[in-house]
Amino acid sequence: MSEETPGGGPPAGPGVDALLERARSELDRLGPHAAADAARAGALLVDIRYAALRERDGTIPGALIVERNELEWRLDPLCDHRLPEATDHDLRVIVVCDEGYASSLAAVSLRRLGLRRATDLDGGFQAWRAAGLPVRRP
Question: How many Å apart are CA 57 and CA 123, to the nearest integer?
């Protein structure tokens, strides 16, 4: 007998917490200082926060702004809608969200596209700012 959801529908999935845990097990997540070092060495920081958060808190100088709903199209080296920075599948991409949750899921999505070096910033923009790293104010 299969387990049903409280509303009587089909069985529920594992839940977002389990999905996040599984995603993070695939990543070598970077802390703020390691991400800054990687960016200096040529990694691409990609800020997927929505505009209101960037306007409220500022941005990381040099980070590429790509809305989450466009991320895969903009960074897939095979896509006609890619950004000039999306040169090949060996590109090191560090995805940044506000607190490091959505970025983990986004980084795994990029890995599924073949960007094998994609990861995310543990703690997101808030951890970057708390670490005293450069922020461009709104």
Answer: 15
Listed residue (110, 108, 105) closest to 77, CA to CA: 110
Q: How far is it, in rounded angstroms, from Cα 29 to Cα 119?
A: 6
Q: What is the pTM of this model?
A: 0.89
Length of the chain (residues): 138
Q: Give per-residue burial for 103-135: e unless 16+ CB within 10 Å, then b.
A: bbbbbbbbbebebebbbbbbbbbbbbbeeebee
First CA to last CA distance, the chain? 55
24-67 pLDDT per residue, tens: 999 999 999 999 999 999 999 999 999 999 999 999 999 999 99
